[in-house]
Amino acid sequence: MRIISANLNGIRSATTKGFFNWLASQNADVIGVQELKAQEADLTPEHTPAGFHAYFHYAEKKGYSGVGLYCRHKPDEVITGLDIADIDAEGRYLEVRFGNLSVVSLYLPSGSSSKERQDVKFSFLERFWPRLNALRESGRDVIIMGDWNIAHHEIDLKNWKGNLKNSGFLPEERAWMTQLLNSGWVDTWRTLYPEIPGYTWWSNRGQAYAKDVGWRIDYQIATPAIAATATAASIYKDEKFSDHAPLIVDYDYPLAL
């Protein structure tokens, strides 16, 4: 089973840069996308890969946020949002279920633009925690993929010393991620590759991409049983569809049909 996560920084922009052409060759089972920056009326058939069922959670604000899931097989159930009005207005959570498997596309808020948005981010982390616990304790196999907007450890960003006071690497955010992983969730990339940074996002400022001055903020976080079946992961950088790169993880796991 191949799962791909990609923050598109605008689905229409990523389409013009060849994202769906590349996706056609990837043999993925489920693809999670984040930061659609589009509404339902903006999407056309070219925004859904052939042979996939498409589901979206749009933000109410135009040109902002939003998540989606493309599924090769039709899921048994689709869960849109967290039933928290202000969070759901930003289109940040979408879950599909196949038998005992849940796959989530998540776009956690950034706090980099202002103190107000950082407060929104902290509020999201606090209110998302009960759902994380419920998923973990449900007995289901769960993969939560997407842009978590947190670099956990020093290995997860190039310039960690210069970012100790910046959103995405704040002590409170990192402590939350530590608590998450100590509670029973598994970071698949870091488990597979303890010593490989695995950057997935680069600032558009300077020569960050060319010099690989990146951050690892896109994750596939999973419950232990399915995380243990992860056999390989990669980050696709041969083409640039967005300021993020797609994260691909292969699991030796039978997708229930």
From TrEMBL:
<feature type="binding site">
    <location>
        <position position="35"/>
    </location>
    <ligand>
        <name>Mg(2+)</name>
    </ligand>
</feature>
<feature type="site" description="Interaction with DNA substrate">
    <location>
        <position position="244"/>
    </location>
</feature>
<dbReference type="GO" id="GO:0003677">
    <property type="term" value="F:DNA binding"/>
</dbReference>
<keyword id="KW-0479">Metal-binding</keyword>
<dbReference type="InterPro" id="IPR020847">
    <property type="entry name" value="AP_endonuclease_F1_BS"/>
</dbReference>
<feature type="active site">
    <location>
        <position position="107"/>
    </location>
</feature>
<dbReference type="GO" id="GO:0046872">
    <property type="term" value="F:metal ion binding"/>
</dbReference>
<dbReference type="InterPro" id="IPR036691">
    <property type="entry name" value="Endo/exonu/phosph_ase_sf"/>
</dbReference>
<feature type="binding site">
    <location>
        <position position="244"/>
    </location>
    <ligand>
        <name>Mg(2+)</name>
    </ligand>
</feature>
<dbReference type="GO" id="GO:0008081">
    <property type="term" value="F:phosphoric diester hydrolase activity"/>
</dbReference>
<dbReference type="InterPro" id="IPR005135">
    <property type="entry name" value="Endo/exonuclease/phosphatase"/>
</dbReference>
<keyword id="KW-0464">Manganese</keyword>
<keyword id="KW-0460">Magnesium</keyword>
<dbReference type="Pfam" id="PF03372">
    <property type="entry name" value="Exo_endo_phos"/>
</dbReference>
<dbReference type="GO" id="GO:0006284">
    <property type="term" value="P:base-excision repair"/>
</dbReference>
<keyword id="KW-0378">Hydrolase</keyword>
<dbReference type="InterPro" id="IPR004808">
    <property type="entry name" value="AP_endonuc_1"/>
</dbReference>
<feature type="binding site">
    <location>
        <position position="149"/>
    </location>
    <ligand>
        <name>Mg(2+)</name>
    </ligand>
</feature>
<comment type="similarity">
    <text>Belongs to the DNA repair enzymes AP/ExoA family.</text>
</comment>
<feature type="binding site">
    <location>
        <position position="7"/>
    </location>
    <ligand>
        <name>Mg(2+)</name>
    </ligand>
</feature>
<feature type="site" description="Important for catalytic activity">
    <location>
        <position position="218"/>
    </location>
</feature>
<feature type="binding site">
    <location>
        <position position="243"/>
    </location>
    <ligand>
        <name>Mg(2+)</name>
    </ligand>
</feature>
<protein>
    <submittedName>
        <fullName>Exodeoxyribonuclease III</fullName>
        <ecNumber>3.1.11.2</ecNumber>
    </submittedName>
</protein>
<feature type="binding site">
    <location>
        <position position="147"/>
    </location>
    <ligand>
        <name>Mg(2+)</name>
    </ligand>
</feature>
<feature type="domain" description="Endonuclease/exonuclease/phosphatase">
    <location>
        <begin position="5"/>
        <end position="244"/>
    </location>
</feature>
<dbReference type="GO" id="GO:0008311">
    <property type="term" value="F:double-stranded DNA 3'-5' DNA exonuclease activity"/>
</dbReference>
<feature type="site" description="Transition state stabilizer">
    <location>
        <position position="149"/>
    </location>
</feature>
<feature type="active site" description="Proton acceptor">
    <location>
        <position position="244"/>
    </location>
</feature>
<feature type="active site" description="Proton donor/acceptor">
    <location>
        <position position="147"/>
    </location>
</feature>
<dbReference type="GO" id="GO:0003906">
    <property type="term" value="F:DNA-(apurinic or apyrimidinic site) endonuclease activity"/>
</dbReference>
